[in-house]
């Protein structure tokens, strides 16, 4: 398992909860687990997405798997309201050893951090019932475009992705998942695109997303400094550039992630 790009400090754990609120309207319109009873969530972290799934699909029981015990401990606090609808397992997703079978799988912003996503797709298959539904939401970081083309943000984003690669992750895993699922023997694979294409037609949404982007970028800041990729001043430059974009008359802020559905 790779080191986690964003770290495990309390501020980052809270960012994950906030992120679920900001991006929820983009992630969930297509996702459908109607009729499913037992869902396996890989890379569940602090339970940010789990909370949404519990609300949207009240018949689901969810097993949360994460390799970080500290993330699961926070998830237990965040999801205490759900009682026995949620269980927690600390395991490496590439080497699962589970006692149950599931009719659905959900993975969101997790495979990007795992050195071999294909091994995860292989590892979950023995625990899936026939006709199980799977939904994946993953990054496609090469899709990021912004205007004006400010150098501080450009350099910072390049180093951000470089750090993820150096840790064993894949910042473009979303673009590759279709082939991986096909090779792993899954069926009914469908690709969808989500994200945002923002400009001054909707300045409030533009401002919301650029502020969210600050938090996302800063979450890797200490790791980037420790790796010698940036300095503290580079973090300030990145933040200032995002503010400039938010206020520019010709601002464009574009990013697409990839969603994939499949069955067993």
Descriptive overview:
This protein has a single domain (10-263), classed as Rossmann fold, CATH 3.40.50. By secondary structure, the protein is of the alpha/beta class. The longest helix is centred in the first third of the chain and has 18 residues, at 10-27. The protein contains 9 helices and 8 strands. The mean pLDDT is 94. Helix content is 42%, strand content 23%. It has helices at 10-27, 48-56, 69-78, 117-124, 151-166, 173-183, 203-218, 221-226, 232-247; strands at residues 38-42, 61-66, 86-90, 102-108, 128-138, 145-147, 187-199, 252-263.
Key attributes of the depicted protein:
Rossmann fold, 264 residues, globular, 42% helix, 9 helices, eight-stranded mixed beta sheet, 8 strands, alpha/beta
Write a short abstract of this structure:
With 264 residues, this protein is an alpha/beta fold. Helices cover 42% and strands 23% of the residues. The model has no long low-confidence stretch (mean pLDDT 94).
The main sheet comes to: 8 strands, mixed
Helix and strand composition category: alpha/beta
The number of helical segments is 9
Mean pLDDT: 94
CATH homologous superfamily identity:
Vaccinia Virus protein VP39
Low-confidence stretches: none
Assign the CATH topology: Rossmann fold
- Estimate the global geometry from the Cα principal axes: globular
CATH class division: Alpha Beta
Beta strands, count: 8
Radius of gyration: 18 Å
Report helical residue fraction.
Answer: 40-55%
Please state the second-level CATH architecture: 3-Layer(aba) Sandwich
**Which strand-content bin applies to the residues?**
15-25%
Straight-line distance between termini: 25 Å
Count up the domains.
1
Give, in order, the helices and strands.
HEHEHEEHEEHHEHHHE
């Amino acid at each position: 398992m790779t080191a986690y790009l964003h770290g495990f400090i309390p501020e980052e754990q809270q960012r994950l909860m906030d992120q679920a609120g900001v991006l929820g309207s983009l992630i969930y319109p297509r996702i459908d687990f109607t009729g499913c009873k037992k869902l396996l969530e890989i890379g569940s972290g602090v339970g940010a997405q789990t909370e949404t799934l519990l609300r949207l699909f009240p018949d689901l029981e969810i097993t949360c798997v994460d390799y970080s015990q500290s993330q699961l401990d926070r998830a237990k606090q965040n999801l205490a309201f759900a009682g026995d609808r949620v269980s927690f397992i600390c395991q490496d997703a590439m080497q699962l050893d589970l006692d149950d079978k599931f009719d659905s799988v959900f993975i969101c912003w997790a495979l990007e951090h795992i050195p071999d996503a294909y091994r995860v797709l292989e590892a979950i298959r023995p625990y899936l019932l026939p006709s199980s539904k799977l939904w994946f939401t993953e990054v496609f970081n090469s899709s990021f475009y912004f205007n004006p083309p400010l150098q501080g943000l450009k350099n910072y984003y390049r180093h951000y992705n470089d750090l993820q690669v150096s840790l064993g992750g894949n910042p473009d895993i979303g673009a590759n998942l279709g082939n991986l699922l096909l090779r792993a023997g899954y069926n009914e694979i469908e690709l969808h695109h989500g994200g945002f294409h923002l400009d001054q037609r909707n300045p409030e949404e533009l401002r919301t997303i650029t502020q969210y982007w600050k938090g996302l970028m800063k979450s890797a800041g200490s790791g980037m400094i420790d790796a010698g990729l940036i300095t503290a001043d580079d973090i300030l430059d990145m933040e200032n550039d995002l503010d400039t974009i938010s206020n520019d008359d010709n601002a464009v802020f574009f990013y697409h992630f990839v969603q994939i559905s499949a069955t067993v």
